[in-house]
């Protein structure tokens, strides 16, 4: 065959191959565009920043230790290993907070290698395009189970409602990850940190209990601590210390004596029973469709007093509320304390609150303010008919039962748990409530919601001012406790 003809055929073959490759590329591009239009993620062709991965693929949760000290009523946070799976929860429908969440996510991803950032499904869909690394989420119907198995630490950015949203995701479980909260909402009485302090706050929480001796522990917190050659010596005797060495700069450890403080906030355990005595907690629905990740409560194999062994547990960090709803007549509710009849409440409604919830709905209804370290629960009537019906403070482990009186004329009254879940109750149904027990076991503390508390800079030898510093500051600065009429903050009486 002539060389000219062979060369022509070869060129023709190369051109056909090139055209086929271009056609395949165009088809792939069209497929990507179609998948985006259908809200379907093609991980095989998506760039790195577009990936949303399944949270079930992450390693299991690292459970921290909480240690008591002789000088404080608060607990000390001790991580056995660096936390890995972080649930980040920004305030919903707040673009500025979303931008702050992106800034925070990028900072911890760069400076703390090995972290996996997790978001609720609807948040992940709106934020992942702004992050140059994969993030994790799961289906809303499965998030309460998966988050309890996988999440090491929760970080909230918003107000008290965002903290309630975080606690509600774990309301069917006895163990809750620590919550680090940044106050970016309307009031933020429960929020401990300003967002401008996020680098310091995150570092203190993440490195809490890191078993590395350091010399430089004084602010600014970004100052490099002394390493003292620990990597070559201490790590040989304790391989777990190698985990901490992955932190960028290898100089952020604060030492065993510098730990974040933890306040275990009590919760209420509630069971709702129909006229046949069957627990119907699984019929609770989210109050707002803007929070679909709450889903419906799964069956938890723990016992509520008076229920069966398979009764699903629901916990509340703030309060349980029963009210008359849209009906014009007052609600009539019989109240029992430890199976003893207390009173027939005729009111707009009844609240039973934790000490944390005493500064929420209960406070607006005229209830007392209770320090969060006081193990108690509070019964507060909402606009009662009788002026002698005053709020009651009871021991935490008191068993309170609400029964709907037959005098309600067959009406259905709404009940809500932390304002996040709701159900209607009718005559013959009961609501049984008791305080959650905080117990110290061989595996650590169980029960309660562990909240990272800002340590006081002026603690005394007894640790009293350290325990109360942020709480007293919140009463004065946010709630304006006992401010005289006409006086502004800081003015003389």
From TrEMBL:
It holds the Pfam family NAD_kinase_C. InterPro entries: ATP-NAD_kinase_N (IPR017438), ATP-NAD_kinase_PpnK-typ_C (IPR017437), NAD/diacylglycerol_kinase_sf (IPR016064), NADK (IPR002504). Keywords: ATP-binding, Kinase, NAD, NADP, Nucleotide-binding, Transferase. GO terms for biological process: NAD+ metabolic process; NADP+ biosynthetic process. One of its GO terms (molecular function) is ATP binding. Belongs to the NAD kinase family. This is ATP-NAD kinase-like domain-containing protein.
């Amino acid at each position: 065959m002539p060389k000219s003809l062979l060369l022509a055929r070869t060129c023709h073959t190369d051109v056909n191959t090139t055209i086929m490759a271009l056609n395949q590329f165009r088809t792939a591009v069209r497929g990507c565009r179609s998948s985006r239009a259908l809200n379907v993620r093609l991980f095989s062709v998506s760039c790195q920043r577009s990936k949303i991965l399944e949270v079930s693929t992450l390693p299991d949760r690292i459970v921290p230790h909480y240690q008591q000290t002789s000088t404080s009523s608060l607990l000390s946070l001790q991580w056995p290993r660096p936390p890995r799976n972080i649930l980040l929860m920004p305030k919903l429908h707040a673009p500025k907070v979303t931008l702050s969440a992106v800034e925070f996510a990028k900072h911890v991803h760069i400076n703390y290698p090995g972290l996996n950032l997790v978001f609720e499904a609807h948040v992940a869909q709106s934020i992942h395009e702004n992050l140059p690394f994969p993030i994790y989420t799961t289906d809303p119907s499965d998030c309460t189970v998966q988050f309890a198995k996988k999440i090491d630490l929760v970080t909230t950015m918003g107000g008290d409602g965002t903290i309630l949203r975080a606690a509600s995701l774990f309301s069917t479980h006895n163990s809750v990850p620590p919550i680090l909260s940044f106050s970016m909402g309307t009031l933020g009485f429960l929020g401990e940190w300003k967002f401008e302090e996020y680098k310091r706050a995150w570092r203190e929480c993440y490195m809490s209990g890191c078993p590395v001796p350091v010399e430089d522990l004084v602010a600014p917190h970004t100052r490099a601590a002394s390493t003292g050659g620990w990597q070559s010596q201490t790590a040989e005797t304790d391989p777990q210390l190698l985990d901490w060495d992955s932190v960028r700069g290898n100089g952020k450890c604060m030492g065993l004596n510098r730990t974040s403080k933890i306040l275990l906030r009590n919760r209420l355990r509630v069971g709702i029973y129909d006229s046949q005595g069957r627990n119907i907690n699984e019929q609770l629905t989210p109050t707002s469709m803007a929070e679909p990740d709450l889903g419906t409560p799964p069956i938890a194999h723990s016992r509520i007093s008076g229920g069966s062994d398979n009764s699903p547990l629901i916990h509340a960090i703030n309060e349980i509320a029963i009210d008359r709803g849209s009906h014009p007549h007052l609600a009539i509710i019989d109240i029992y304390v430890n199976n003893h009849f207390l009173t027939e409440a005729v009111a707009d409604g009844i609240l039973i609150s934790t000490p944390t919830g005493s500064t929420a709905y209960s406070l607006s209804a005229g209830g007392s303010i209770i320090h969060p370290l006081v193990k108690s629960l509070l019964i507060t009537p909402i606009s009662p008919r009788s002026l002698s019906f005053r709020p009651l403070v009871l021991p935490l482990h008191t068993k309170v039962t609400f029964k709907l009186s037959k005098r309600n004329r067959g009406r259905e009254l709404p009940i809500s748990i932390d304002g996040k879940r709701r159900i209607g109750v009718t005559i013959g149904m009961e609501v049984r409530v008791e305080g959650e027990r905080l117990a110290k076991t061989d595996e650590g503390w169980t029960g309660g919601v562990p909240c990272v508390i800002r340590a006081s800079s002026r603690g005394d030898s007894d640790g009293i001012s350290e325990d109360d510093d942020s709480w007293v500051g919140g009463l004065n600065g946010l709630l304006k406790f006992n401010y005289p009429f006409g006086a502004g903050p800081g003015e003389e009486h």
